[in-house]
Amino acid sequence: SGITAKDIALAIIARIGADGARGHAIEYAGTAIGALSMEGRLTLCNLAIESGARCGMIAPDETTFAYVTGRPFAPKGDLLDRAIANWRELATDADAAFDREIRLDGTQVAPTVTWGISPEDALPISADVPDPAALDDPAQASHVREALDYMGLKAGQALDSIKIDRVFIGSCTNSRIEDLRAAAAILAGRTARVPGLVSPGSHLVKQQAEQEGLDRIFRAAGLDWVGSGCSMCVGMNGDLVPAGERCASTTNRNFKGRQGPGARTHLMSPAMVAAAAVTGQLTDVRNFLRGDR
User: Do residues 141 and 135 touch, judged by C-beta distance below 8 A?
Assistant: First the structure.
């Protein structure tokens, strides 16, 4: 379907705001959350802080236990059985009271991208850039004007018409093996129109990706395969987005200057970044999944 945990997270942040969960812990639940892989759940919880939360949580279940089993520092044998029995008790009580409950219809979540200078500035890829003149809240209108000025965008501009200069696939948010596989699936047999970096989330992920041949797909598409680290997420080690350039990025923050002074960042899922790399502009990844590209 092209819908990922990153899209769910950005939809939530857009709904409640970058400070909507300030001072709270978020528990994610529901059928859409239960259907996520462990990697997807890690992405979702990783982004909880971008809505102001202190942490994000998902109750452990069979997906969790299967993921932990056999990992380098996981308990083994009887110790693992006892640990899983204890972990089953961690689920929130059915009658637990929350300070606030927010419900989203998972079937209405679409591939999502950011257009502004905060993770809450996020919309479905089929939407248009907001018009500050259409907003009643003066503070919100001021924020949109500031964001459009910095990002070099025009009100009413279609998001899928925005050209990009480079891409980045990496960061603690979206560089697990599942993320790299999703991006590689879009890039396989295709050539990127813009330069970019791919930085796996850890040395183990890098090893696994190379064993699966994912590194060869990225290189063949014209992207650089580099070591694991923060890299272009925060403009470290010389991995910068030049001033005025626009980057489609799998990272967690799109603040002013986050990827370098004057850099313009659009957040999205790994598959969406791969699609943008191929087309040279923000693109609905579902076009590739339907075979339209």
Answer: yes
Q: Is 67 exposed, middle or buried (0-12, 13-18, 19+ CB in 10 A)?
A: middle
30 to each of 13, 89, 135, 169, how far by Cα in Å? Answer: 17, 18, 32, 28
pLDDT tens column, 24-72: 999 999 999 999 999 999 999 999 999 999 999 999 999 999 999 999 8
pLDDT given for residue 205 in this prediction: 96
Beta bridge partners of 248: 167, 266
Q: Domain 160-289 classified CATH 3.30.499.10?
A: yes
Task: Report strand pairing: 196-198 vs 112-114.
Answer: unpaired
Distance CA 273, CA 288 (A): 12
pLDDT single digits (tens) 182-214:
999 999 999 999 999 999 999 999 999 999 999
Spatial distance between the Cα atoms of 31 and 106, rounded to a whole number of angstroms = 8
Question: Tokens standing for 82?
Answer: 């006892």
In the CATH hierarchy, which fold is given to the domain comprising 5-92?
Answer: Aconitase; Domain 2 (3.40.1060)
- Give 292's pLDDT tier (boundaries 50, 70, 90): low
DSSP string, 26-74: EE--SHHHHTS-HHHHHHHHHGGGGGT-SEEE----HHHHHHHTT-TTS
- Containing 85, the helix (H) or strand (E) segment is helix 77-87
User: What is residue 114's three-state secondary structure?
Assistant: strand
The pTM assigned to this predicted structure is: 0.96
Q: What is the pLDDT of residue 291?
A: 74
> Is 39 in contact with 176 (CB distance < 8 Å)?
yes
- Could you count the other beta carbons within 10 Å of the beta carbon of residue 175? 30
SS3 content of the chain, % helix, strand, coil (to 5): 40, 10, 50
- Domain map of the chain by residue range? 5-92, 160-289
